[in-house]
Amino acid sequence: MGGALCICSRGSITIENKRYFFVHKLGEGGFSYVDLVEGVQDGRFYALKRILCHDREDRKEAQHEVEMHRLFNHPNVLPLVAHSIIEKGPKWEAWLLLPFVKGGTLWNQVEVLRDRNSFLSEDRIVHILHGICLGLKAIHDRGYAHRDLKPTNVLLEDDDRPLLMDLGSMNQARMEVKDSRQAMAVQDWAAQRCTISYRAPELFNVSSDCVIDERTDIWSLGCVLFSMMFGEGPYDMIFQKGDSVALAVQNNITVPANERYSQGLQTLLCSMMVVNSQERPFISTIISHVEALQPIVEGQATTRI
């Protein structure tokens, strides 16, 4: 747990003996808020994530997110600067101080281009994808899976270096399911913690005798790649229309006809989005394929969009 936190005068806070000025709100979700704050001592900007904890289980989950951040010191995983969990009557608030990334999320970039009827160039996609893969490999190498990879959970630095964030859904990479009760528990957990339009097929209808591993992230990675290529995830529109994503993910994906991207990139996309999880490649194989695309892309001298 972090050091004591106090809310002081003139919109300032102190976390782990360092003071920060509140600047403005950045956004909010179902159970959390994100504020922009400025360090008094260093003058740097940070994102302060405040997670509302209604009971001990919520508090446990917030502490889990802190612990997941602390596992990593990697250029493609968002680091945790400081944290604190404070008591507010019968409830708690978890405060996570994170670096502020001015460029916003990958989804922000995709959406801006889509609104201009434009798309990410292949060289930029391959560069970003490579960084995401390296971050995922760091997570998988520690025996964990992200479980909620999506464009809004990838931040982009000015040089397009991606940073994986929102580690609260991370858990052990390998889950052995041996009966129907365990299957239902995993399925219910996934329904709460894994975004539906980026959720792997095996998490919708969990078998009572199966092994679920980190290749759930490979499916989600494919959905992220699809969104970079075509401006939206492959199942975003299905979800928005109210149709069944659970049913849609049981069929092989169809790559839209296009002349923007190489056959190699399209083949890589299809290799990730295989319905049978045991036929999906692991992250090291994906990285090898992405790196094989890099010399081709560099030789094309494409313009950065």
Automatic annotation (TrEMBL):
Matches recorded under InterPro entries: Kinase-like_dom_sf, Prot_kinase_dom, Ser/Thr-specific_kinases, Ser/Thr_kinase_AS
Record Pfam families: Pkinase
Domain Protein kinase intervals: 20-297
Annotated Gene Ontology cellular component terms: cytoplasm; Golgi apparatus; membrane; perinuclear region of cytoplasm
Reaction(s) this enzyme catalyzes, per UniProt: L-seryl-[protein] + ATP = O-phospho-L-seryl-[protein] + ADP + H(+); L-threonyl-[protein] + ATP = O-phospho-L-threonyl-[protein] + ADP + H(+)
SMART domains the UniProt entry points to: S_TKc
Annotated compartments: Cytoplasm, Perinuclear region; Membrane
Secreted found in the keyword field: no
Membrane topology: Lipid-anchor
One Gene Ontology molecular-function label: protein serine/threonine kinase activity
Keywords of the record: ATP-binding, Cytoplasm, Kinase, Lipoprotein, Membrane, Myristate, Nucleotide-binding, Palmitate, Phosphoprotein, Serine/threonine-protein kinase, Transferase
Catalytic class of the enzyme: transferase
PROSITE patterns reported for this sequence: PROTEIN_KINASE_DOM (PS50011), PROTEIN_KINASE_ST (PS00108)
Enzyme Commission code: 2.7.10.2, 2.7.11.1
Main localization (coarse): cytoplasm
Function: Membrane-associated protein kinase that phosphorylates on serine and threonine residues. In vitro substrates include DRG1, ENO1 and EIF4EBP1. Also autophosphorylates. May be involved in secretory vesicle trafficking or intracellular signaling. May have a role in regulating stromal-epithelial interactions that occur during ductal morphogenesis in the mammary gland. May be involved in TGF-beta signaling. Able to autophosphorylate on Tyr residue; it is however unclear whether it has tyrosine-protein kinase toward other proteins.
Quaternary organization: Monomer. Interacts with DRG1 (via its N-terminal); the interaction phosphorylates DRG1.
Protein name, UniProt field: Serine/threonine-protein kinase 16
Organism expressing this protein natively: Xenopus tropicalis (Western clawed frog)
Underlying gene: stk16
